[in-house]
Amino acid sequence: MTYCVAMKLDSGMVFASDSRTNAGIDNISKFGKMRVFTRVGQRVIVTLSAGNLSITQSALNLLEQRARTNPDALGIWNAISLYDIAGLLGEAMREVKNRDGEFLRQNNIDASASFIVGGQIAGETQRLFQVYSEGNFIEASLETPYFQIGEIKYGKPIIDRILTPATDLTEATQCTLVSFDSTMRSNVSVGLPIDLLVYRNDSLSVDIQQRIEDGDPYFSQLATRWSEGLRGVFVNLPKPDWLTPKI
Amino acid sequence: MTYCVAMKLDSGMVFASDSRTNAGIDNISKFGKMRVFTRVGQRVIVTLSAGNLSITQSALNLLEQRARTNPDALGIWNAISLYDIAGLLGEAMREVKNRDGEFLRQNNIDASASFIVGGQIAGETQRLFQVYSEGNFIEASLETPYFQIGEIKYGKPIIDRILTPATDLTEATQCTLVSFDSTMRSNVSVGLPIDLLVYRNDSLSVDIQQRIEDGDPYFSQLATRWSEGLRGVFVNLPKPDWLTPKI
Hints:
2 copies of one chain form a homodimer.
Chain A: E1 3-9, E2 12-17, E3 20-22, E4 28-30, E5 34-39, E6 43-51, H1 53-69, H2 82-106, E7 113-121, E8 127-131, E9 137-139, E10 146-150, H3 156-162, H4 169-186, E11 194-200, E12 208-212, H5 217-235
Antiparallel strand pairs in A: 1-2, 1-10, 2-11, 3-4, 5-6, 6-7, 7-8, 8-9, 11-12
Helix pairs in contact in A: 1-2, 3-4, 4-5
């Protein structure tokens, strides 16, 4: 399983992905799910992927290889819009599924896969897209300034409570890590390390890129403080008057 | 969608279910999903149901009707063990699915359904079971003292953080309601009213039964205090030193 989240805020963007891949619970390995395509001053493009690893890896490899072998065609390094990049990623995924999908289905292997892709290309504002398994895609809006893929539900409530487009990048990063903590507590197949990338709006460079490994002191402290804080809030919640006299 | 949760603690049990049923997002109605079979001093049996409403209702109706028309056969009013009740419920569900399942499948209607059933029968300890859509079932243990069915993920992290078998019934009730609040915030198809039942171990009677309606002052206060409390904890979380100098 996988958990990835990306946020588009007034001040910039936060991207994060876990690194656990499993083909059955007895075959768990670590694979980064974040890819970064960057030329300082020109473009920062970040992809996060979930689902069948062979499908998402192949789709990204096709994109990279074609941009190298046929640099004049529309590709990741010359597209003038992130909208086009999202479309290219969807098409590449469809192509890989056309090639491999039938063989996977024959063995009941799930071929579904999805991407989050976002960042900024010079001449455009920062943008964020989610590419579905069918290759179609949507863009984040002011009302929904974030996307999640993979094991999304455990970590969603905290984001819904905290995040607005005005949230600053520090709080958004903290919110992201708390969301990962909640997810990892409830689903053992999502695990450290977490790849984290923070992008300041209009910087056109990767501002922070951090890998949070097992035993990371900041992440441990954050998780402990959050857990203790929640318990503190919980024990001070009001008690229902219809309950206390009888129980 | 539905959300139901039940907890088995040293001091008793807590059962809760929402009341929203939808057959498509344009056809939402309220149906209680909790049924209580009780004879004071003899038995308290509580069922919570999720999934296809026609399947779960029919299965319960079969159980009730057979206990009435054939009171000597093994049934809800004479079984000496909750284990047998869980088995009866699973069998009744299989029977209804045999009758209706093929017709539902013809129109791609999901026939899956599940139950939580728990309580106490005189002569036994309190017990809690989850009956799967296939009719097989499992019993709650010390390690996992609770079951959820329906839209389970949004409300799971808070239970995992708070609940142990030693949690008292007041805290377990608060935890249940916070879990519902988290679920309802993230999934509009889970909604008030909430049916809540609290059972004290060995009382062999329903100790608290409460319906929490829209605008319930206690539930509103709990949700507000929880939300404000979380924000309070959040804003006091430590900031990562690799982030603050740059962002």
